[in-house]
Amino acid sequence: PKPSSAASDVYKRQVEMSAPIILPAEMWRESGRYSTYGANLFKFKNRHDRDMILGPTHEETMTTIIRDSIKSYKRLPLSLYQIQTKFRDENRPRSGVLRGREFLMKDAYSFTSDEESLDAIYNNMKKAYINIFNKLDLDYRIIIGDSGDMGGGDSREFSAPSDAGEDIIAYSDATEYAANLEMAKDFYERQLNTEKAKILKKISKNRSEPFETSIDQRIQNEKILVKTTIFEADGKLVAVLMQSDYEVNEVKVKNFLNVDNLEIASEEEVFSIIGAHYQHVGPVGLPTHIRILVDEKVADKANFMAGANLDGIYYQNINFGRDVEIDDANISDFRIAHEGDIAVDGKGKLVFAKGIEIGHIFKLGTRYSESLGAQVLDKNGRQINVKMGSYGIGVSRLLAAVAEQHCDQNGIIWPNSIAPWNIHLIPMNYSDDIQKNLTDTIAEKLMDAGYEVLIDDRHERAGVKFNDSDLIGAPVRITIGKNAYKEVVEIKERNALMSIEEPVDNILEIVSGIFSKD
After folding, report:
1. 279-311 residues labelled b (16+ CB within 10 A) or e (exposed)
2. DSSP strand E in 192-259: where?
3. Distance of CA 72 to the CA centre of its chain
4. How many Cβ atoms are within 10 Å of 390's Cβ, its own excluded?
5. CA 283, CA 267: separation in Å to the nearest integer?
6. Residue by residue, what is the 3-state secondary structure of 298-312?
7. Rounded to whole angstroms, how far apart are CA atoms 518 and 516?
8. Using only C-alpha atoms, what is the Rg of the chain?
9. DSSP3 helix / strand / coil % (the chain, rounded to 5)
10. What angle do CA 477, 482, 484 make, to 5 degrees?
11. C-alpha–C-alpha distance, residues 60 and 29, integer Å
């Protein structure tokens, strides 16, 4: 079928550029991220006492460029991209290039006047990323992700499973469902609880044997204990009610409330407002200015237990409607899913694995164009906010992911597509004229054929050279040794167990066959 005009245009209007690394803070104040991005933002002042930052990402920069230069929908769609160093003040830099304060990133930003063009670019970027990661022979999953500080929606992460990763991937063992743990959902069907409401009463955990035996057993069997966590959400207090064997998922809460800042209220603040420490905080009698959010598993409970807002005291037989008023609009999935839970599609169990995030695509919508005033005239002459998408590949950590997945006990096994050298030539004695001349002849032939060649001309023992060759990880190693006078060499693929002896005249044919496998 003939592609739509939007799909055709996205190929024509892609511009590579390089934005400044040092940025004025003003545009980040306009977007609101100067105060909300967090401690990872490098901030400093120049000689004129002007606030500056080191760019961790460039949504504001690119949006400002569009705002100041594009005035009509006729010049859209347009995509701007760059491969550039970014800076983030990581709290715990670790694992070399995997998490550093300075890293290389490919970031792209699309600008369109309509949803059709945004969808076309988004889908093309997704296909391009798939092609790139397939070419690198990476094992990866496309998972539901969180847009985080970037804002926006329709977020998809590309995550490479690896024990070195810091992210947790939750995926179904029976379907294609996969998500970052922050976004993972388990399967739950709301159910009407017909249990008869019992009399509300206070009990003390510190005083009675029956509590320790019968109540604790019931808590374990029926999961009737509900814990209450107090958050500050953009300066307002919010209480989240959660079944005691689950933890609150702060990302889900933040996205539900659509706030910039969310953090757990301090123990001191909770005590000063409620009069109890965290373990004994509960929903009954909470101050009216505290909004109550209820996890869906809790919303269906009857006669449950929670703190009574007095240290050491609990309420037993709490019921919604009678003891706590809740709004259906405040009920949702606010929990961190457990490994082994049924996946949200209901067709398999959740399995957890560590992963390295290597790419991320998401639709920003008008999040930045609205705050920064990036508008164009549409075909009817009306001012409209430009629609945006953001697309990134962590180039530095991509190399780490490849190295983690393509290695053995001796070193890296680089895929042919990104090996720093295609072929490693190892003469056993480069001082020997026969070996030297043959090595140089082979190198010249290979380079003339388009291959990148590394020659180990050091005066080292064979074992040292072979160990270093395995560590470097070039796809093919050619050893020029005792049979050099016969113009016979040893050829070995990096991931093969054995080498083969071949005449020099066969090298190009053999090497071509090896690299044509890709």
Report:
1. ebbbbbebeeebbbbbbbbbbbbbbbbbbbbbe
2. 201-204, 226-233, 236-243
3. 34
4. 26
5. 17
6. HHCCCCEEEEEEECC
7. 5
8. 30
9. 30, 30, 40
10. 75
11. 10
Number of H helices, E strands in the chain: 15, 29
198 DSSP 8-state letter? P
How far apart CA 448 and CA 452 sit, in angstroms, is: 10
What gap in Å lies between CA 320 and CA 330, rounded to an integer?
Answer: 13
Q: What is the residue whose two structure tokens read 């180039």?
A: 395
Q: What is the pLDDT of residue 137?
A: 93
HSE value, Cβ hemisphere, 13 Å, CA-based, for 312: 4
Residue 150: CB atoms within 10 A of its CB come to 18
Tokens in use for 115?
């949803």
Find where tokens 């999935």 sit.
333
Q: In the prediction, which pLDDT does 92 show?
A: 82
Q: Count CA within 13 A, CB hemisphere, residue 359.
A: 23
| Residue 307 to residue 453: CA distance in whole angstroms | 70
Taking only the tens place, the pLDDT of each residue in 396-453 is: 999 999 999 999 999 999 999 999 999 999 999 999 999 999 999 999 999 999 999 9
Q: What residues contact residue 441 under an 8 Å CB cut-off, 6+ apart? A: 504
What are the CA-CA distances from residue 201 to residues 198, 303, 308, 316 (Å)? 9, 10, 10, 5
CB atoms within 10 A of CB 380: 7
pLDDT attached to residue 274? 93
What DSSP assignment string belongs to 64-109?
HHHHHH--BGGG-SEEEEEEEEEE---SS-BTTTTB-SEEEEEEEE
Q: Is the pTM above the cut of 0.90?
A: no
Q: Which parts of the chain have pLDDT scores under 70?
A: 1-12, 147-153, 205-222, 518
Neighbouring residues of 365: CB distance < 8 A, sequence distance ≥ 6: 152, 153, 387, 388
The CA distance from 345 to 93, in Å, is 37
Identify the residue whose tokens are 């919010």: 238
User: Which residues in 265-396 belong to E strands, given as ranges?
Assistant: 291-295, 304-310, 313-318, 331-332, 350-365, 375-377, 383-385, 387-394
Q: Report yes or no: 171 and 177 within 8 Å, Cβ to Cβ.
A: yes
- Give dist(CA 416, CA 54) in Å, integer: 35
